[in-house]
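Entry 14. Structure prediction run on the chain below.
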Amino acid sequence: METKSNKLGVMPIPKLLATMAFPLIISMLVQALYGIVDSIFVSKINENALTAVSLAYPAQNILIAFAVGTGVGVSAFLSRSLGEENYKRANETANHAIFIWITMSLIFAIIGRTCGELYFSLQTSNPEIIDYGTKYFNICVGLSFGVFGQITFEQLLQSTGRTVDTMIMQTTGAIINIIFDPIFIFVLDMGVAGAAYATVLGQVSAALLGIYINHRKNVDIHISMKNFKVNFEVLKGIYKVAVPVIVMISLGSVMVFCMNLILIRFSSTAPAVFGVYYKLQGFFFMPLYGTKNALIPIVAYNYGAQRKDRIKEVFFLSVKFTLTLMLTGVIVFCLMPTTLLQMFDASENMLGMGVIALRIISLSFPFAGLTIIFSAFFESTGMGAYSLVGSIARQIVVLLPCAYILASFGNVNRVWFALPIAEVCGFLISSLLLKVLFSKIDL
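Output returned:
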């Protein structure tokens, strides 16, 4: 049985990476844009609204962790099955992805409707921030079936090499979000809740489009829930990769949550600055994650097909691209911090704090970027635990203690240095683990 996914094993690597990554990079840039637009509109309500959305980020990221982590596991396991010409297992993997989507959506619906107020009360005593945040949390987390569906069907397309269709899905959802943000927030006077509903509407639209595209165009897999039975071997194959990714991304939520607790001791502006940074850095990191998502099926397929020469070639090519992109990010953040912050109606206090923060944190970009690319090779070869080790060291063992110690000096500007320090440590650990991986697979 020949499939179009065979391009993963025969197309020249530069062309393959470009054709796989470019649509994902475009779609990820659109994702970054609508995340920024969302915060820009919210910031026009007031700074407390922006702070509430910033404090909600860790909770949203936990949700994303389960969706993306599972999706990465599905993509790696499905692509490897295709590389090994095990088409029955590839179809079973796709069917289990649907089962997981439904299950996760139900679990997070319960969490979203019951835990919002408690979550924000743990971070602040400001009643306005708690009110804004709870409304936003209840909607985005409670109606998470959209984002789970969107990511599930994106990964099914990516795992068979259909990244253009993934771009169409993500771009459609993002555009719908951007259009309805101002309508819901200002025209219908829904405030922060309007931003959340616009987000959910974009996610649901993308998920429905993903169902249609997979049904009509993805001929490499056959999805059918008729007579479906849970196969624990398939689940094991998916979650061998997915669990470390879920934990790794969730660690980011723990890190941001704890950083917000440290920063809010200085003022409510500090976590708002940190939240704005996370939105802005998406312009450079989202394309990198798009490249990573393209790398996973490429490496997984060629790992299954024992094409080590192609794995080596795509590694060096991706490293060159990463360094170019990340150094560009450093230059932009260092030269244009005021312009970036003014997009969010930054007050004088926020500008004074934010300019310093953006310049300091951007120094971490090259190290963080390479660590992300290294993780693609860990995950696509079934060694996702290596990514987990690097993330624990970077985001928990180094960053939080370092931030806490620096905060004890009473100057918020010192806290920002914790991020570059942690990323350098994460890069060194990941480099060592990558060397171990390459020796294991004789690369």
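The chain has 18 helices and no strands.
Filed with the rest of this week's runs.
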